[in-house]
Design brief:
This protein is of the alpha+beta class. It folds into 2 domains: 7-42, no CATH class; 44-109, no CATH class. The chain has 4 helices and 6 strands; from the N terminus they run ββββββαααα. The strands form 3 sheets. It has a two-stranded antiparallel sheet. A two-stranded antiparallel ribbon has the order 2-3. Strands 5-6 form a two-stranded antiparallel sheet. Helix 2 (65-83) packs across helix 4 (100-109) and helix 3 (89-95) crosses helix 4 (100-109). It is globular, with a radius of gyration of 17 Å. Bound molecules: zinc ion. Residues 13, 15-16, 18, 42-43, 45-46 line the site of zinc ion.
Length: 118
Amino acid sequence: MTTATHTAKKWTCDHCGVSVSRMGGEKVELPDTWDNSSEGTYCLICRRERAAQAALEAAPEDSPLEMRAKLRRAALIEFEVSRRPDHGDGAIAKACRSSVSAVAAARQRLKLPAPTNS
Ligand SMILES: [Zn+2]
């Protein structure tokens, strides 16, 4: 049995409490979509949520609702683009229920190259 850096008997998201484990109790690798850092362990859904929250926290407190919704959407797209930069704009737009142009704009903001096979 190999010992990877990211294995544990059980992974539990610090935010929502969802967990990943094996029936037999063998060690499991941290799922690809999860993040384990000094801040804690988070599942994909909570990672997205944290990205959106961070964007909202950075916004002025008196930002109108519409502005906050816009920031939140942009943060989610940026999160997905940086998580899977090799995915086509169309695929990411679909995952975020957004438009291809919004994804392309986020990619530009992050200075990420366009995927080769989009
Ligand atoms: Zn979670």
